[in-house]
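User: I'm preparing a small set of examples for a lab meeting where we compare how different chains pack in three dimensions. I only have the primary sequence for this one, and I'd like the structure in token form so I can line it up with the others. Please keep the answer compact; I'll paste it straight into my notes.
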Amino acid sequence: MLLSKSRQFVCSKCSIQKFGKCLQDVCIKCRIHVKKEEKKNISFINSNTAKNGYREEELVCNDLNNNNELKRLVVDFLEKDYQSFSRVNGNNKCDIQSFDSSIKIQVKKYKNGQFQQLDRHWINNIVQYIPDLIKVSLMLKNLCEYPILSDGIHIDKTVPVKKLCLSNYSNCMLDNFIDIFNKNKKEILNYAFLGTSQEMKPNYLCGVEYCDDDRKRIVLFKIKDILSYLNTLDFKLAKSETVIILGDDSIISLQRKGGDGGKKSSNQLQIKIIVSKLLDKVANIQYTLV
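Assistant: Understood. Below is the structure token output for the 290-residue chain.
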């Protein structure tokens, strides 16, 4: 409860008697400390997520290099042999590649029915590579981008974003929004799966299925097959009016990223994938891990 007048109180964090205005009976010094700890926790979570991703890439390389049964299965699927795989450094769509660099694979950990991030970028970056989306860029920014606070780091949530609904836009505007997405469907999917680097475009997607903390199986898709299937589907608005989905199963979805401790990076547009929903839609090979 916010108090309008100064008063004496005992801080619930440090148990020291204080005097002044406060929120939730926590003194200013302790509130600053809590904020610093929250920032540390967010940084730790982000760092840990990245490290877990790198670890999975190393595990997949180890599987492909040392499991002869899996290697035979993969060679048949690829229709070409390989010497070895290693992890690729840098922020690329390609996570691992063969020794001769001819086979490039993106690796995704996944659980049944759960989404994984496929891409996240500022709307201006996406429009740069898909210029036709400039026609709907304002609506996308209204959906994703909260104003930035004076510190230049965090967002101001007191100003609400604008949902894709009839309260904010006409029926014609909403229909045109989705129409433009569908006209640029190929470009949007290529951007999400292949990225913008010609040299580091992956040609395969490797999913590693987890149950709790256990690796259960490896699945491998040709990205060209995934794109061929997804291009038969249409974009539409989800019932939440804050998410754009591809197809009835929402295998691909686009929405404001959120999270990130309220930092401005949460204003980015995130593209997500549910890998498990591709299993019975797109040709793949599966190998059960022991």
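A couple of notes for your slides: Residues 67-288 form one domain. The longest strand covers residues 214-222.

User: Perfect, thanks.
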